[in-house]
Amino acid sequence: MVVGRAARRAERAAKVEAAMGADAAPAALDLLELVEFAWHDCYAEITPDEDVIDDILVCAGGDLARMISFARLAVEDSRDLRMAADARRAAEGPPV
Q1: Residue 93 has what pLDDT?
Q2: From CA 13, how far away is CA 45, in angstroms rounded?
Q3: Cα-Cα-Cα-Cα dihedral sign, residues 15, 11, 8, 94
Q4: How big is the CA angle at 22 (ends 20 and 25), to the nearest 5 degrees?
Q5: Which helix H or strand E contains 34, and what residues bound it?
Q6: Exposed, middle or buried by CB within 10 Å (0-12, 13-18, 19+), for 16?
Q7: Which helix (H) or strand (E) covers residue 72, if one does?
Q8: DSSP secondary structure code for residue 11 in this structure
Q9: Number of C-alpha atoms within 13 angstroms, CB side, residue 34?
Q10: What is the mean pLDDT of residues 4-12?
Q11: Do the Cβ atoms of 67 and 56 come closer than 8 Å?
């Protein structure tokens, strides 16, 4: 079953709001839509894996400007994004 862009946005809304805050969530969701357009142009896939989205949010650390930078990195080379996200997760330690 094909999931449309609006449905993906709705599915991500709570996760994005938790990561970015209620005020920044609409802009962050818009940015993720732009990531999808770029991802499709570069990789001919509709959307990146949710792991890539999660990595963008982790690296952003709640800052929209950082999210923009890491969204660009995701499209450029998602392996570099994964390394940055893993380093951030390791620095934060295990969840309590």
Answers
A1: 77
A2: 21
A3: positive
A4: 55
A5: helix 25-43
A6: buried
A7: helix 64-76
A8: H
A9: 12
A10: 94
A11: yes
* CA dist., res. 12 & res. 33, Å (int): 11
Q: 23 exposed, middle or buried (CB, 10 Å; 0-12, 13-18, 19+)?
A: exposed
| Banded model confidence at residue 87, pLDDT cuts 50, 70, 90 | very high
Span 9-62, pLDDT tens digits: 999 999 999 999 999 999 999 999 999 999 999 999 999 999 999 999 999 999
What are the tokens at 9?
């946005």
Q: What is the pTM assigned to this prediction? A: 0.91
The candidate with the shortest Cα–Cα distance to 30, out of 8, 51, 54, 48, is: 8
Residues in the chain: 96
